[in-house]
């Protein structure tokens, strides 16, 4: 076990190492995934990544609701 001055140096070295690791890691996957969800269902507020998925969702989950105009020309 390190004691005294050596212990403090070891802690500082470890803190610097942890900071470098965190900086190097960059962005996290959760933020990137959230940014990809750009379409939001007006009925249930579920978010989808693309219009094709959005149309499939709308047709299966909300068949009685009128189709939004932005989904009219989308190929499913």
From TrEMBL:
InterPro entries recorded: MBS1/2-like, SERF-like_N, ZNF706/At2g23090_sf
Q: What is one Gene Ontology biological process annotated in the Swiss-Prot or TrEMBL record?
A: regulation of translation
Ranges of Low complexity compositional bias?
7-18
In Pfam terms, one family for this protein is SERF-like_N
GO CC, one annotated term = cytoplasm
Q: Where in the cell is it found?
A: Cytoplasm; Nucleus
List keywords of the entry alphabetically. Answer: Cytoplasm, Metal-binding, Nucleus, Repressor, Translation regulation, Zinc, Zinc-finger
Specify the Small EDRK-rich factor-like N-terminal domain's residue ranges: 1-37
Which ranges are annotated Basic and acidic residues under compositional bias? 19-31, 53-62
* Region Disordered, residue ranges: 1-32, 53-76
GO molecular function terms attached to this record: zinc ion binding
Gene3D superfamilies attached to this UniProt entry: At2g23090-like
Spell out the PANTHER family in the cross-references: GEO09665P1-RELATED, ZINC FINGER PROTEIN 706
Would you tell me the protein name for this molecule? Zinc finger protein 706
List the source organism.
Acipenser ruthenus
